[in-house]
Design a protein that fits this description.
63% helix; single chain; 119 residues
Length: 119
Protein backbone atom coordinates (compact mmCIF):
# COMPACT_ATOMS: atom_id res chain seq x y z
CA UNK A 1 0.00 0.00 0.00
CA UNK A 2 1.38 3.37 -1.04
CA UNK A 3 0.42 6.00 1.51
CA UNK A 4 1.59 9.47 0.59
CA UNK A 5 1.62 11.99 3.40
CA UNK A 6 0.10 15.23 2.19
CA UNK A 7 0.89 18.68 3.60
CA UNK A 8 -2.59 18.58 5.16
CA UNK A 9 -1.77 15.25 6.89
CA UNK A 10 1.47 16.76 8.25
CA UNK A 11 -0.38 19.82 9.53
CA UNK A 12 -3.00 17.59 11.22
CA UNK A 13 -0.25 15.54 12.88
CA UNK A 14 1.60 18.68 14.01
CA UNK A 15 -1.44 20.28 15.61
CA UNK A 16 -2.54 16.97 17.17
CA UNK A 17 0.93 16.56 18.69
CA UNK A 18 0.93 20.16 19.94
CA UNK A 19 -2.47 19.72 21.61
CA UNK A 20 -0.88 18.13 24.67
CA UNK A 21 0.93 20.31 27.28
CA UNK A 22 3.48 17.60 28.09
CA UNK A 23 4.47 17.32 24.43
CA UNK A 24 4.74 21.11 24.15
CA UNK A 25 6.96 21.14 27.26
CA UNK A 26 9.14 18.43 25.73
CA UNK A 27 9.56 20.58 22.60
CA UNK A 28 10.49 23.59 24.75
CA UNK A 29 13.17 21.46 26.43
CA UNK A 30 14.46 20.09 23.11
CA UNK A 31 14.67 23.61 21.67
CA UNK A 32 17.54 24.11 24.16
CA UNK A 33 19.39 21.04 22.86
CA UNK A 34 19.26 17.29 22.48
CA UNK A 35 18.18 15.15 25.42
CA UNK A 36 17.68 11.51 26.35
CA UNK A 37 14.34 10.08 27.46
CA UNK A 38 15.67 10.03 31.01
CA UNK A 39 16.59 13.73 30.81
CA UNK A 40 13.21 14.57 29.31
CA UNK A 41 11.32 12.62 32.03
CA UNK A 42 13.01 14.40 34.98
CA UNK A 43 10.74 17.47 35.26
CA UNK A 44 7.54 15.45 34.93
CA UNK A 45 5.75 13.32 37.49
CA UNK A 46 5.29 10.49 35.03
CA UNK A 47 7.16 7.35 34.10
CA UNK A 48 9.75 7.06 31.33
CA UNK A 49 7.39 4.79 29.33
CA UNK A 50 4.77 7.57 29.48
CA UNK A 51 7.34 10.07 28.21
CA UNK A 52 8.31 7.59 25.50
CA UNK A 53 4.67 7.47 24.35
CA UNK A 54 4.66 11.27 24.05
CA UNK A 55 7.94 11.12 22.13
CA UNK A 56 6.47 8.57 19.69
CA UNK A 57 3.63 11.00 18.94
CA UNK A 58 6.14 13.80 18.40
CA UNK A 59 8.31 11.55 16.21
CA UNK A 60 5.31 10.41 14.15
CA UNK A 61 4.43 14.08 13.57
CA UNK A 62 8.02 14.71 12.46
CA UNK A 63 8.61 17.20 15.27
CA UNK A 64 11.32 15.13 16.96
CA UNK A 65 14.00 12.84 15.59
CA UNK A 66 16.04 10.18 17.33
CA UNK A 67 19.80 10.12 17.03
CA UNK A 68 22.34 7.51 17.98
CA UNK A 69 25.42 8.07 20.08
CA UNK A 70 26.89 4.81 21.46
CA UNK A 71 24.20 3.50 23.85
CA UNK A 72 22.30 6.79 23.89
CA UNK A 73 19.34 7.67 21.65
CA UNK A 74 19.19 11.45 22.08
CA UNK A 75 16.14 13.25 20.72
CA UNK A 76 16.37 16.40 18.63
CA UNK A 77 13.72 18.92 17.71
CA UNK A 78 12.88 19.19 14.01
CA UNK A 79 11.86 22.71 13.07
CA UNK A 80 10.30 22.17 9.62
CA UNK A 81 6.82 21.00 10.77
CA UNK A 82 6.65 23.90 13.24
CA UNK A 83 7.61 26.33 10.47
CA UNK A 84 4.86 24.89 8.25
CA UNK A 85 2.30 25.28 11.06
CA UNK A 86 3.52 28.82 11.70
CA UNK A 87 3.16 29.66 7.99
CA UNK A 88 -0.39 28.28 8.01
CA UNK A 89 -1.30 30.40 11.06
CA UNK A 90 0.40 33.47 9.54
CA UNK A 91 -2.15 33.50 6.71
CA UNK A 92 -4.95 33.88 9.28
CA UNK A 93 -3.05 36.53 11.23
CA UNK A 94 -2.94 38.63 8.05
CA UNK A 95 -6.70 38.23 7.56
CA UNK A 96 -7.39 39.28 11.17
CA UNK A 97 -5.02 42.23 10.85
CA UNK A 98 -6.81 43.39 7.67
CA UNK A 99 -10.16 43.08 9.46
CA UNK A 100 -8.92 45.18 12.40
CA UNK A 101 -7.58 47.84 10.03
CA UNK A 102 -10.98 48.02 8.33
CA UNK A 103 -12.63 48.34 11.74
CA UNK A 104 -10.23 51.15 12.69
CA UNK A 105 -11.09 52.98 9.45
CA UNK A 106 -14.80 52.59 10.14
CA UNK A 107 -14.40 53.91 13.70
CA UNK A 108 -12.41 56.92 12.45
CA UNK A 109 -15.09 57.61 9.84
CA UNK A 110 -17.83 57.43 12.49
CA UNK A 111 -15.86 59.74 14.81
CA UNK A 112 -15.43 62.30 12.03
CA UNK A 113 -19.19 62.26 11.32
CA UNK A 114 -20.11 62.60 15.01
CA UNK A 115 -17.51 64.89 16.65
CA UNK A 116 -17.77 65.06 20.44
CA UNK A 117 -19.79 61.82 20.78
CA UNK A 118 -18.37 58.64 22.34
CA UNK A 119 -18.08 55.80 19.83
Amino acid sequence: MNHTITPSDRLDATFAALSDPTRRAILVRLAKGEASVMDLAKPFSMSQPAISKHLRVLEKAGLVSRGRSAQRRPRHIVAKPLAEASDWLENYRKIWEDNFQQLDLLLEELKSKSPGKEI
